[in-house]
Structures are given as C-alpha cells and as structure tokens.
Specification:
Its main location: other. The protein has about 270 residues and is an alpha/beta fold. The protein has six helices and nine strands. The protein is globular, with a radius of gyration of 22 Å.
C-alpha cells in the first residue's frame, strides 16, 4: 500500500469514528419533510391506526372510562385543576418505547399549549392524577381528567404527528369532536346513506357547552369528509351551505381551538 493510500485510509477511519451513529429509520429532518408533504387528513390517519387496537372506542378514538359517561365532560369534576398561580398543571409521563425523535415531537406538541394558554404539562413526580403517553395499538384518549393514571395512546406507526398529538391531548383536556356539537346541523350535513349503519352512532350529537364560540370547520377536532364512509370517494360529512369548505385539517390547533381552551379553563 502506498503512503498516500495509507494516509487516505487513516483519514476515512477517523472520520467514521467521529460521526455519531444514527438510529434506524428516518432522520428528524426526513420525518419533518414527510409530515409537510403528507396529505392524509387527521381522521383517516387516526381511524386507520385504530384498526389495530382491541380497545373499545367511541367516535373512533375515545376510551370508555369506568367512572362516568365518556361523552360528558363539562363539569368541574373532569377538568384538570388550576393551581394558585392560575396555571393548569398537568403531570405526564412518556414511555421509553419512543425514540428520541418521537419523544421530542411529543414534547413539542405539549409545549404548544403553553405558549397560547394557561395549560402547563410538567413531568410527573409523585402526583396521583397524570397522563401516561404510551405506544399502544392506536391513537386514542379518554375525555377529560378521569383520575389516577390516564392513558393517552400514540402508536409509533401512525400517531406521531403534531396535529394528531394535539387532537388526542385536547380530548384529554375535555374537548369533543367538532362535528358532534349541539348546533352542528346548521353547519354540516351528515350523509347517513354513505355511513355504515353500525358506525352511525359515531355521529351522534351531544349537549355540548360551545363556550360562546362559532362552529369551527378548521378545528383540529373536526372529522374529515370521509370518516366512517362505506365506500372510498363518498363523503360522510358535507359542509353547508358551502360544500367546498375544507374540514379535517391536520396541521395544528386553530385560533378557535385555543380560544376554547382559554374559555373552558378561565385562562
């Protein structure tokens, strides 16, 4: 081997030892790029992921608690408590099954509440009531505070997206899906003929406290057009009077989502 070849080999060996090993799979930059270019609506993503769970879910992603009606959360009993400093502090844990990149996405989504409301997610120490973020068989949460350990599932294969994490976190804070609110028939038409009769219960209206806010087509809590549709291309939900209004966005909380958080928790 010539001296120049030996020198080149040594340089390459040193460089390989200096560079950190990367985890298998996509880098954070590649994951962010995929999320930007992805066009799957949030409901399709959540419902597809939840096909893999044996959990009994209502409206596609709401766990059924044993202590109360899963659809009722407008009383003080199921809201997270406000501290003396007027901040709503919610302890949480994140499963070690998530990669460093996935963990960071979860933390970023939780921190997005802090900059726009009085909600503060803090690592759990010894608090009795807390949210346990786990890698289970889908994307789902309970409605509001249930007491004790409260599971918020974010399956690694389909739920680690900013909008999905916010969506499930809003359920944990006590918020319904937008299209089930009490006045929805003035804003959307439910196309019952395009919905599997066994899935029709997912579109039941609820006696919601709408917090004096208008109906929000752009809410991160709104179903997409084809949720629970019996056939691809058939809409289960149509906005009215303008059928072309976008629903089921997936990028993040709308301004009305934020306003409702602040209204419900008196931020």
């Amino acid at each position: 081997m010539t001296p120049s070849a030996s020198l080149l080999l040594l340089l390459l060996l040193g460089l390989s030892q200096a560079l950190p090993l990367q985890e298998e799979g996509n880098t954070e930059e590649e994951e962010e790029e995929e999320e930007v270019t992805d066009t799957v609506d949030i409901t399709t993503r959540i419902l597809t992921s939840n096909n893999n769970t044996d959990e009994l879910l209502l409206e596609g992603d709401l766990m059924v608690p044993t202590t109360r009606n899963a659809m009722t959360c407008w009383s003080q009993k199921c809201l997270w408590k406000k501290a003396s400093n007027r901040m709503v502090t919610i302890p949480f844990t994140v499963s070690s099954q998530f990669t460093r990149s996935e963990n960071q996405k979860i933390i970023n989504a939780l921190n997005s509440f802090q900059s726009r409301s009085c909600i503060r997610f803090v690592p759990r120490q010894n608090q009795n009531d807390y949210i346990s973020i786990e890698n289970r068989g889908g994307c789902f949460s309970a409605m509001g505070r249930t007491g004790g350990k409260q599971v918020l599932s974010l399956n690694r294969q389909g739920c680690i997206y900013h909008g999905v994490i916010q969506h499930e976190t809003l359920h944990a804070l006590g918020f319904h899906h937008e299209q089930t609110r009490s006045d929805r028939d003035s804003y959307v038409r439910i196309n019952w003929q395009n919905i599997n009769p066994q899935m029709a219960y997912n579109f039941k209206k609820h006696s919601t406290n709408n917090l004096n806010t208008p109906y929000d087509y752009s809410s991160i809590m709104h179903y997409g057009r084809t949720a629970f549709s019996i056939q691809q291309g058939r809409d289960s939900i149509t906005p009215i009077p303008n059928p072309n209004v976008q629903i089921g966005q997936r990028t993040g909380m709308s301004s009305l989502d934020v306003r409702r958080i602040n209204a419900l928790y008196s931020c």
